[in-house]
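3.2 Worked example (two chains)
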Amino acid sequence: MNIMDGHVDKISIDYDDLNIRKLILSYINIKKWFKGVPIKVEISSSGTGFHIIIYKEVTISENLMWRAFLGDDPVRISYSLRRLLLNSDPYVVDILFTKKDGRYVKELDLDYLFIKYNIKVDEVNDENFEEIYKTILPEIKRVIGKVYYLVVPVNDVDDELLDKIYADEGIRLNRVRSYCKDYKEFVVARKIGTADFSDIIDILNKYVGVAEHWILEDELK
């Protein structure tokens, strides 16, 4: 049997951003295309994106096709193919992590919100989508919580140093390229529910020094 004809019990999509508009559009389309099929929506364990899980048995090739079509993380799809070729066990094709850095996924019950506001998926169209989006957006933002970013301008930070900070302190930081003439890059940290970054600033002072920083709230949309 062709390995791609093997079966898996779900299709899962990993959106690596908190784009609520995209999430709602995807959810509506999936509900239309997979009528009567159980669908679960989660905020990822990292808190940086969403999962959509479609509980339908499909072949491996169908799983990969739908994930690509629905905008799953292409790197994740690539790793799925690598694991499959090295292992040949269908289980390895579609893996979602439920825990990361001590945090767990959080369920986002869109089925409940659509029932609460009497929204019928088959009646959603280009004319009424904006009103529906604005109606449920505050509810989704409440579940996610407020999202804050610490932005620190730096000049001498590389991935090796960030890996060392993670290994020593358990804090995951990211580098973002700067277009400011005074700094080459920014170090960025993220928290949900609190804007208190004093612990991370203290850690950064141990390694690179913090001359200035900004704390920004993410306007989720």
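3.2.1 Second chain
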Amino acid sequence: MSKIRDFITISRIKILIATPAQPLLGTFLAASSIFDLVNIYLIYFLILYIISILYAVNVNCYYDRDIDIKYKVKLARAVDNLGKENIRVILIIETCLIMILSGYLMLVGYVIVGIFSVIGWVISTSYSAAPIRVKKRGYLSALPIIIGLFMFPYINGWLMIKLNFQVYGIIYLIGYILLNEGMNLINTAEDFDEDLSENVKTWAHVFGLKWTFKIALIFTVIGGVCCIWGLLIKLLSSQIYLYNVSFSSAFIIISSIFILKSSWDLYSIGKRDDLRKAAKENAYRMPFWFASTRYPMLLAALFILLPF
């Protein structure tokens, strides 16, 4: 039982709570009707996505153990308790499942989805694993997160429904990347001293903490506006009924409120004198920011599809 708890710990379950929304946002926004979602292969795709995210966080905890022991002690202890050999076995199993499911989706016609999933595995590995370890490469450090965690899931979810992208989908994608990377930057700032001690150079070191929080706020605000804009275009270009307009509009408003709340939180944190301390004290908010902005948008996208 203790091993299961340790595995849950290195799987960052609080962050994972908000992750199912990511590919589904692409899927729901690509759909023209609720009946487009009746697709057995979506189940295989979601399983593939969840395993891919588990692999990404597991491999990160594995290679970040010496950093985490300095502050995120619970993560480091979980790695020690599981044992690195056991974690390597877990990573191999996850890799095999990713390759099998990616190959299967390619065989049944979702070729690009399968290819992007394999590329996502490469990105997840190179982000954390030596000798490449992109997360310590300064300006490049954020790219694996932006591409692998925020961009590919949405694109793959969309491609499960249709191959052609529409303007509103692209606007939403740009906004989604900015919004989530903006909120994610507090996690980057949280590890400022620990990363520096291990020669890991992130955006927090490249830009400094003051400008990192300014960038976080700008990204969050602009990204939020683009997401709401994309949802509104989707709504206005869809068949209009009483219930789909009412429910989707309500959740778009709720999304806007939570985006504003997240933006205000980042603004307030960035105004603190001791930004190192502020980042550590407030990083726990990030999973809530993710969940509170993603799920109302997901529900808005779903209700747009209602045929009544």
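3.3 Remarks
The radius of gyration is 19 Å.
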